[in-house]
Please model this.
Amino acid sequence: QRQMCKETGVEVADTVGAGDAFTATFAASLMQGLPMEECHRRAVAVAAFVCTRHGAIAPLSEFMKTEITNR
Model:
């Protein structure tokens, strides 16, 4: 089955991680039993969001910084 999704129109900062984000979101959505169209829509949205960020790793929250340094 072939399906097209509407363009998201984001301003791209970096494409690193977009494919991984798409695949992970699509697989997780499938595992939740969602329809194929919804899995695709969610995966495109998450991959588009990832493209708006620089680099593959988001900055750590203050909570995570504290958790890491206190161990």
In short: The CA atoms of residues 40 and 65 lie 34 Å apart.
